[in-house]
Design brief:
By secondary structure, the protein is α/β, with parallel strands linked by helices. Helix content is 37%, strand content 13%. The chain folds into three domains: 64 residues, Winged helix-like DNA-binding domain superfamily/Winged helix DNA-binding domain (Arc Repressor Mutant, subunit A); 233 residues, Aspartate Aminotransferase, domain 2, CATH 3.40.640; 98 residues, Aspartate Aminotransferase, domain 1, CATH 3.90.1150.10. The chain is built from 13 helices and 15 strands.
Length: 461
């Protein structure tokens, strides 16, 4: 039996008739009004019913076949696919975003005190738009084929030159792989080095997403305390991997001392272990010159250096890079081709041009001056604080809950980041991290007053 199918078309709207017919049948299948195995009218019959050309119905049916919602069965007619109707979603399914205590809402405009987002008001949007248009046009004109899974050669060349100048790393483009941000670099490293199931240590406090990623890779994570010299390597356990932020520790902002760096490299050599250097904010050192990267001191080929363009250009790029020791370049190239090829070539071309033309270094210099001025203004208004990279760290009074305060601050249009989730175990202190990048000068004073008033009201009497 042919399933009853009630469809109406509206010739007064701009939506093509084929699209209207396709949408009506698709919705009927997804809503369960057409069940798996139900026979549809023939093209001729449905065309006659609707008063349209047979080719119009045929085109709608072909789209539904391509989407595997219906199946053409020859003499048996056209029928709804047996598995076309998905199970109804669980009404109790939560839409809570991941790490809600750190990221209040994805894809939203940055708010005062928010961390991890570069200044929106100072980005050269007009210049960047022109570069993106040229990159899109160039990508559309290249021969159709598979791009290098390691990343665009021009971008890898520019990154190698930049790292030699800014981070003291001597490497070739063959050692560089373009990744989907730091998370892409971390995942590629864990899979290629086959570290799943082993032990890794990372700094405490440390970035919660990195800690969770190591757990998801099946690794046992050991917390190593951080003091004024960085991670205390003398307390590092036996492990296959260490993940560190030696340039500017996340979230405390301290720079790992030379003695600790040398001890860490010696630990990796004697333990036959690997080090992933998360070069968090190192190119955005706001006072003095940034210390050379840990990878610049590596003579044994144990350090993998990971960087991104999230803090310098935009996190929406989802673009990062991984520098591997020479002896691992071929192995990582194979892994990238099979598991994690470089992301969109349009974005890669745009960043390559941004760097080649000198815009990137000029942009960094402007941002450092701007961020330093905003940081100083914030410190002046907040009183006793500690600087931590592109943030100011505010210690809360005893008994104050930083996660609760940060959540309540959202209603005031503020987005401070609580410190306690950065600790692996019991937090040593509750505090707030106040990002300086998107502060509005004329509102700094009033924003600080609102936050301080919220903190005062949250402290138990």
């Amino acid at each position: 039996m042919t399933a009853p199918l009630q469809i109406s078309v509206d010739r007064a709207v701009t939506v093509p008739l084929t699209t209207q017919i396709h949408g009506a049948i698709r919705d009927a299948i997804r809503d369960g009004r057409l069940t798996g195995g139900a026979r549809l009218p023939s093209w001729r019959d449905l065309a006659a019913q609707l008063g349209v050309a047979r080719g119009t119905v045929r085109a709608a049916y072909e789209r539904l076949i391509d989407e595997q919602l219906i199946v053409g069965m020859g003499a048996a007619g056209t029928r709804v696919a047996a598995q076309a109707v998905a199970a109804a979603p669980d009404a109790g399914t939560s839409d809570t975003p991941p790490f809600a205590e750190l990221f209040h809402k994805f894809d939203s405009a940055p708010m005062p005190f928010q961390m991890g987002v570069p200044a929106q008001d100072a980005f050269p949007i007009t210049l960047w738009s022109r570069i993106m248009v040229r990159a899109a046009r160039a990508s559309a004109m290249v021969p159709v084929g598979y791009p290098d899974p390691r990343g665009l050669p021009e971008l890898r060349h520019e990154i190698a030159a930049y790292l030699a100048i800014a981070r003291g790393i001597r490497c070739t483009p063959a050692q560089i792989l373009i990744t989907g941000g730091f998370s892409g670099a971390l995942g590629l490293a864990l899979r290629t080095l086959r570290l799943e199931g082993g032990t890794a240590w990372m700094e405490d406090p440390g970035f919660p997403l990195t800690r969770t990623a190591l757990h998801l890779a099946g690794m046992k994570v050991a917390a190593v305390p951080v003091d004024a010299e960085g991670a205390d390597v003398s307390q590092a356990p036996v492990a296959a991997l260490a993940v560190v932020t030696p340039g500017q520790q996340a979230p405390l902002g301290v720079t790992m001392s030379l003695a600790r760096r040398l001890a860490l490299l010696d630990w990796a050599k004697t333990s036959n272990a690997w080090i992933i250097e998360d070069d968090y904010l190192s190119e955005l050192q706001l006072k003095g010159r940034a210390a050379p990267a840990l990878a610049a001191l590596d003579r044994e080929g144990r350090v993998l250096h990971a960087g991104t363009f999230a803090k310098t250009i935009s996190p929406t790029l989802r673009l990062g890079f991984l520098v591997v020791p020479p002896q691992l370049a071929s192995q990582f190239g194979t892994a990238a081709a099979c598991l994690a090829p470089a992301p969109n070539s349009v974005v890669q071309r745009a960043v390559a041009e941004f760097m080649t033309a000198g815009h990137y270094l000029r942009h960094l210099r402007r941002m450092k001056r701007l961020y330093a001025a905003r940081r100083d203004a914030l410190v002046n208004h907040m009183g006793e604080t500690a600087t931590a990279g592109l943030a100011v760290r505010l210690t809360l009074p005893h008994g104050a809950n930083d996660v609760d305060i940060a959540t309540r601050a959202l209603a005031l249009g503020l987005s401070p980041v609580p410190l306690s989730p950065w600790y692996a175990g019991q937090p040593q202190s509750h505090g707030l991290l106040l990002g300086v990048t998107n502060m509005v000068e004329r509102r700094i004073a009033s924003d600080c007053v609102k936050l301080l008033g919220l903190i005062e009201g949250a402290v138990p009497g």
